[in-house]
Design brief:
It is a single chain. By secondary structure, this protein is an alpha+beta fold. It folds into two domains: 8-153, P-loop containing nucleotide triphosphate hydrolases (Rossmann fold); 161-241, Translation factors (Elongation Factor Tu (Ef-tu), domain 3, Beta Barrel). The protein has helices at residues 8-18, 73-90, 94-101, 111-123, 141-151; strands spanning 23-25, 27-30, 38-41, 46-49, 62-65, 128-130, 171-180, 184-193, 195-197, 201-204, 209-212, 218-222, 225-228, 231-233, 237-241. Strand 3 and strand 4 form a beta hairpin. Helix 2 packs across helix 3 (94-101). The longest helix is centred in the first third of the chain and has 18 residues, at 73-90.
Length: 251
């Protein structure tokens, strides 16, 4: 939002027209371009301000509950955008629809109900939620990460049809192979089902081969840090050393 010419409403329009999906903005920007300092959270009805003079790296921000009882232009705008948010959610979620039909004031609808509605809509791929921030100035990073935890699906929320053929057995997909000068070939694997364990043999369906994972060859990676682990469960990404036959996109 701090880029020259950034326009939040135009972004929403572009998403709607070019991607043919329903955008659901849960944030409103406070300021724009150089004057962008924070956001209004339409779910919690709070404003979050990042003061770069106090904390240049954006790791600290101030949160203030909004007073919507006054008749200021900013309060009316938040009221209108909150009404629009509830209106969109009510089209997809029966619980929110019930609140609307019972004439519950939009600002009195519990945040937990709104969050559940947004999560279900996201998991069902009915619409896309839109947040705002600045990568350069680290504004909005914390709410973005919170939204990832709250609204995006965990592995058990997504049902992959192909997993029914594996029962309780391991199912994992290789997606990248890199070469490390100390560890040799390292294979990155996404575990879809079961548990990938160090010291166990794995069957490659594509190549019809069996390879054994060394007891010290299973890692979880954070940037350039390789942390040795004993096992990696469904939904996680593992890095495996010592595999000779595997190729990218092998199961």
């Amino acid at each position: 939002m701090d880029k020259h010419g950034a326009n939040f409403n135009m972004c929403l329009k572009s998403i709607r027209e070019r991607l043919h999906v329903q955008p659901i903005p849960i944030h409103l920007p406070i300021g724009k371009e150089r004057d962008f300092v924070g956001l209004v959270d339409l779910v919690s009805l709070e404003q979050k301000i990042w003061d770069s003079s106090k904390c240049p790296d954006g790791s600290v921000y101030e949160t203030e509950k909004l007073d919507l009882d006054n008749d200021s232009p900013s309060s009316r705008m938040v009221h209108n955008e909150r009404d629009a948010l509830i209106g969109i959610l009510s089209e997809y979620d029966e619980n929110i629809q019930t609140h609307v039909l019972n004439d519950v004031k939009n600002e009195d609808i519990p945040s937990s109900d709104i969050e559940n509605a947004i999560r279900n809509i996201t998991i069902n791929n009915d619409a896309v939620i839109v947040l705002c921030g600045s990568a350069k100035r680290n504004i909005g990073v914390q709410p973005l990460l919170d939204a990832v935890v709250k609204y995006l699906p965990c592995p058990s929320d997504i049902k992959h049809n192909f997993l029914e053929y594996y029962g309780s057995n391991l199912c994992a997909l290789t997606f990248k192979i890199v070469h490390d000068k100390h560890r040799g070939a390292l294979t990155y694997v996404r575990v879809y089902q079961g548990v990938l364990k160090a010291g166990e043999s794995i069957y490659n369906m594509n190549l019809n081969t069996v390879e054994k994972i060394g007891k010290q060859d299973l890692f979880q990676v954070n940037a350039d840090e390789y942390r040795q682990v004993k096992e990696v469960g469904a939904g996680n990404i593992a890095c495996v050393g010592g595999l000779n036959d595997v190729r990218p996109c092998n199961i």
